[in-house]
Write a structure and sequence with these properties.
Blueprint: H1 9-21, H2 26-36, H3 41-54, H4 69-72
């Protein structure tokens, strides 16, 4: 599976630095984080609560049509 992330240059620099500290390339480090990072329920909850602050303020909302079953599952 391929996943695309839209990261700022600053975020990429920080992640590359962390990867280097672990002796890994960026891609290896990201896979390691995705597979091995375990966090507590409290930390997970805190990250979820902080998520709206990370999103752009001008993010457009989805039209109601996009959320209809018929739109998602066209046969």
């Amino acid at each position: 599976m391929t996943i695309t992330l839209d990261l700022s240059d600053q975020q990429v620099r920080r992640l590359k630095a962390r990867a280097a500290q672990h002796g890994q390339q960026l891609e290896e480090y990201l896979v390691h984080l995705a597979v091995h990072e375990e966090i507590s329920y409290e930390e997970w909850n805190a990250r979820l609560k902080a998520l709206p602050e990370l999103l752009p303020r001008d993010l457009p909302s989805l039209p109601d049509e996009a959320l209809r079953r018929e739109t998602m599952y066209r046969e």
